[in-house]
Amino acid sequence: MHLSGHPDSDRPEPGAPLQFRWRKWDGGPHWVNDCIYLGRDRWGDWVGQPSGWRNVRPGLEFLADGPNVTLIPPSGDYAMTVHGAPRRVRIYIDVAWDIRWEGHEPRGIDMDLDVVKAIDGRGLFIDDRDEWDEHRVAYGYPLDLVDRLEALAVDLERRVAAAEAPFDDATPDAWLARLASYDAVAPPPPVSFAAAGDGGPGTDGTAA
Which pLDDT tens digit goes with each residue over 89-123? Predict the structure, then answer.
């Protein structure tokens, strides 16, 4: 696996703390996750979240109950989180839109649909279809985008089932090992939604 430094000026140095900020289609704030930039491989950029780091959105906050890493592919249409010490979920993929790097931090639009590989008996499934159906009407998602992301969710489910890289164990486990080497890194300052601008929380993959 090739672990590069920053591929362009929008990426921080590996080991730098950052916040992955998400918003909804209408611009409303969603999750913000405190993370560490880990580097890049053939699949995209990877960020990691140590155990105990913060995830917050308006009205809700929780701490990561174990280490996790998130892949942000160049396509910017999903973010895959893999948990290193899972109790319920190993893989949680947020279907997304327009994930991009701004000011050395990733930002994106949460598009409701999630692909989940649970280890608590629920198996592999596409989650939050009800929220997707509600929001595509309320927010007026473009029809071509609806078709594209629904097909993407089905394809991601297939790739996870087949354990194709990077949806296997070996790929994210290598990045989890890299995350463990940054145990001395301090988290970024807590986010304030009043000062978050376009805000947008992020994802540790366990809440949507």
Answer: 999 999 999 999 999 999 999 999 999 999 999 99
Per the CB < 8 A criterion, the answer to whether 70 and 48 are in contact is yes
Decide: helix, strand or coil at residue 63.
strand
What tens digit of pLDDT does each residue of 154-178 get?
A: 999 999 999 999 999 999 999 999 9
State the residue range of the domain holding 84. Answer: 17-174
Question: How far is CA 128 from each of CA 115, 131, 133, 196, rounded to the nearest angstrom?
Answer: 9, 5, 9, 26
Nearest partner of 188 among 69, 56, 30, judged by Cα: 56
- The CATH number assigned to the domain holding 68 equals 2.40.380.10
Q: What does each C-alpha distance from 161 to 13, 93, 118, 184 come to in angstroms? A: 33, 13, 12, 35
Q: Per the domain annotation, does 180 fall within a domain?
A: no
CA distances from 156 to 73, 94, 162, 167, 178 (A): 13, 10, 10, 9, 25
* Beta-bridge mates of residue 37: 47
pTM: 0.89
